[in-house]
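Lab channel / #folding
Pinned by the channel admin:
"Please post every new chain as: sequence first, then the structure tokens as a reply. Keep commentary short and put observations after the output so the thread stays searchable."

First post following the new format, from NK:
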Amino acid sequence: MLSPLSITGLGALSGLGENVASHHQAITARQVPFQRLGKLLGKASPHAMRPGAWIEPRSLLVNRKWSPATMAALHVAREAISQAGWSDGELKDAALVVGTSRGNAAGWLGPWPGRRPFRVMAASNTIHSEPASAISIEFGITGPNHVLASGCAAGLDAVGIAMMLVQSGAAPRALAVAVDLPLVPLLLDNYAASGLLADEMDLNPYHPTSLGFIPAEGAAAMAIEYRHGKFPSLLHYGCNADASDPVGIPADGGRTPELLEKAIRLHGSPSAVSPHATGTAVQAVADPALLYRAFPDHRPTLHLLKPFTGHTIGASGLLESVILTRFLTEGKLPPNLNDLHAPKGFHLPNQALDACGPVYKLSHGMGGHNALLVLTPP
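Reply from TO:
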């Protein structure tokens, strides 16, 4: 079994705030950021009455050179690096892994208010890898550099690959970053045409009437290394695929229970699980099914974070892992919103409970891709 890796720095940006502290405070206070999209896109938008969550102030995302998604990625990378206290020399040989689903679609598929065009950067603004290039340039990171685009699992996969790079000796430390800004009219049109968007302002992922997710902007970062101290740890990353559907997950949970069962053999039963829990009709069936299969007797508590953040698509796995990690630094688990519907036999505590063992985080991405991260308090 590989030695656990310490999480020494965190960064977060979403509708809940500009840093990790604001996310922790908002969730502790049971605050949600959802607003009608008409406030952002205008009343003439066909999505004006749908709920969404976006980053404010918008000035954080405006730059003449870098795209809006790149600016979000730089923001969270800066916070995580500062918290980790990495020197220029330590940054130089670090690895960088960026996860995203829609890359630089924001500001490319349509105009971005307040941004002046910069023709010299037109090519880089249209590709997924620009955020990674910008982070490496701005912070002098010259180690291994990768970009992952595995849909909604991209953020969790970024952490997993970053772990592998450090554990293999390819780099002494790694920065995992994830970003998605999906509130683009063309993308929202496609989500709506697929029947994936929510109409209600309250997200209750496992309620029988829940039929869609609330789209949201988000970015997150995590600094990873072998370091002694009172840090939360990364114990395990696993992934597999159902090879059954380009966007969905099998109704019985597919191969995800196999990921959970292997992690249990290696690290013991979790005290808590944070499932994908998007709010779509497919996920509302598949998540409980896989949980029943993986936990026929022992029932860990469930902690649903998208009712607080919305679905930040490729950033979701890492953003939710950062939130979990912040609570774990104090030996706690994040509370759930009040009155959420729970799968039969499972508990959704609305108080910040003590973390008594490993915490499992799940994400599901394109092509039936499943990802699992195992975290533990200090």
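NK: The chain has one domain: 5-376.
TO: also worth noting, The mean pLDDT is 95.
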